[in-house]
Design goal:
Length: about 280
């Protein structure tokens, strides 16, 4: 397997976190659980499509090669048999809102293809990226495209939304967040749906899940984790983890096999974003 990572240019870091180039050879079917992380993922695929199954959905899987994953508070499973080759871009929610220039509520929950988002321009970008000889050249090319789209965008994230996201991530109660940014609960929810793709309560659930998983992988007991992440009790924690990931807390920790947050499995430093199922 080939895997190359690069952080975004510091000037873009508010919008784009990182780039990851990968190539997985042919082989037996592999399954990977993608855990809600508080970020957006754009996959620019050069190889076979991936079969995607949201854990909370009852319908059949979707097949996508180049697609966006945004605004999700429940996990999904990606399955493939190798020959997967592509470039993954991790963006902030508000960064994706600016780059794509669309209400994030229109993109959340599903897995829109790049053709649906950018039409023929998106297809041409993928073809150009695939033809470049090195990952550094590919990263430079996609970064230039994202920089241009952000500069040309008519959408600018509201400072109140970015401030509220930071405060929620720091564990503030939502009523205190509303008071800090000067918005009512209804207005904050409306702007979050527009610029993040999830209401504030869903964002808080995702970030609280990440807090719990980090604490568990750092060696805390599940009872300690429940208290640290502000769950009512351990039973509430177990229910939330199972609802959001499809796995019990114990099974999820077992499948991580001791990998720390921000490991090679994960898209973001300090977060638990993926688990290999087999």
């Amino acid at each position: 397997m080939e895997s190359v990572r690069r952080a975004s240019d510091p000037a873009l870091h508010r919008l784009v976190h990182s780039y990851h180039g990968f190539r997985i050879p042919d082989g037996p079917e592999r399954s990977r659980l993608e855990i809600p992380s508080g970020a957006v993922t754009l996959l620019l695929g050069f190889g076979r499509p991936i079969r995607i199954s949201p854990v909370e959905a009852s319908g059949g899987p979707l097949e996508r090669t180049s697609f966006l994953t945004a605004g999700r508070s429940a996990a999904s499973v990606g399955r493939h048999r190798g020959r997967i080759h592509g470039l993954e871009v991790t963006l902030s929610h508000t960064g994706a809102h600016q780059v794509f220039g669309l209400p994030m509520s229109h993109l959340a929950g599903g897995f829109p293809s790049l053709s649906e988002l950018w039409g023929r321009q998106g297809e041409l970008l993928v073809e150009e990226l695939e033809g470049l000889p090195t990952w550094e050249q590919r990263f430079d090319r996609v970064e230039a495209d994202l920089r241009r789209r952000a500069a040309d965008s008519r959408v600018v994230p509201a400072w109140q939304v970015t401030r509220a996201l930071r405060l929620i991530g720091a564990g503030w109660e939502l009523r205190d967040v509303q008071r800090e940014v000067g918005w009512s609960a209804r207005h904050l929810r409306t702007r979050f749906l527009e610029q993040v793709g999830m209401p504030p309560k869903a964002v808080a659930r995702v970030l609280r899940l990440q807090t719990a998983l980090r604490a568990r992988l750092a060696g805390r007991t599940w009872a300690q984790v429940a208290a640290l992440a502000r769950f009512h009790d351990q039973a509430h924690l177990t229910h939330e983890v199972k609802t959001m990931t499809g796995l019990t807390p114990g099974r999820l920790a077992e499948l991580r096999r001791g990998a720390q947050p921000g490991s090679a499995l994960d898209r973001l430093p300090g977060r638990v974003t993926s688990v290999l199922l087999g």
